[in-house]
Amino acid sequence: MPDLTTLHVHLGHYLTLSAILFFIGVSGVVFRRNAIIMFMSIELMLTAVNLTFLAVSRQLGDHQGHVFVLFALAVAAAEAGVGLAILVEIFKRRGSIDVDDFRKLME
User: Fold this and answer.
1) pTM (two decimals)
2) Residue 59 domain boundaries
């Protein structure tokens, strides 16, 4: 049985996890037509990028990446509030949040 105290998580592990999360988010945006699923997928991609910033910042021993992620999370929270408010209003008016129905708003 391996000694669990000697296991270390390296930069490659973080970057692999970040890449997996990012591509799950990309697939959600590309293949799904529901606006809320697409919105959550974009947030997942943003989280993957933030994880990359944190991992590289930790590897370099620099705290600038941590500060950048803090600001990115604050902007993402504001964006989520505004985006969900817009989606709720569209659902009230149209009865659907399908992305294909959004083209009717341009007409």
Assistant:
1) 0.79
2) 4-106
